[in-house]
Amino acid sequence: MSNVRQASLNKKKVSAARYTIRLVTFVVAVLLVVLLVLKVSMHSKVVNNMNRAAVLQNQILEEKDRTVEIEELEEYMNSDEYIEQVAKEKLGMVKDGEIIFKEAD
After folding, report:
1. Bigger pLDDT: 6 or 69?
2. Which of 86, 95, 96, 99 is deepest in the core (most CB within 10 A)?
3. Which residues contact 76 (CB under 8 A, 6 or more apart)?
4. pLDDT value of residue 104
5. Is 102 inside any structural domain?
6. What digits encode the pLDDT tens for the residues 9-65?
7. How far apart are CA 54 and CA 74, in angstroms?
């Protein structure tokens, strides 16, 4: 009867070992699926952030160009040439010896 009992115990051990192997395999598979999903999600975020960084870099370049234009305009507006132009156009002033011609209506 010892052999029968021994065989029964061996079957239970083998059955328990198979169950453990299946359980470990299942857990590993679930972990791999979770990691794959996280990898895809992170890759998507990285791509989105790279696109956003490119857009922001373009905006920075545009703003730098705009800053240069504003500085050039400020320099022009502080010049005698600009002051003279405004005095002529807005205030109707003329230099000594200049003659203004206006169109007749």
Report:
1. 69
2. 86
3. 82
4. 81
5. no
6. 777 888 888 999 999 999 999 999 999 999 999 999 999 999 999 999 999 999 999
7. 30
Residue 42 is predicted with a pLDDT of: 96
**Residue 81 structural domain:** 2-89
Three-state secondary-structure class, residue 85:
helix
pTM for this model (two decimals): 0.53
Q: How big is the chain, counted in residues?
A: 105
Residue 40 counted as domain residue: yes
Which candidate, 97, 60, 30, places its Cα nearest to that of 22?
30
Domains identified in the chain, total number: 1
Cα 41–chain centre separation: 16
For residue 89 the two structure tokens come to 């156009």
In this structure, is residue 94 part of a structural domain?
no
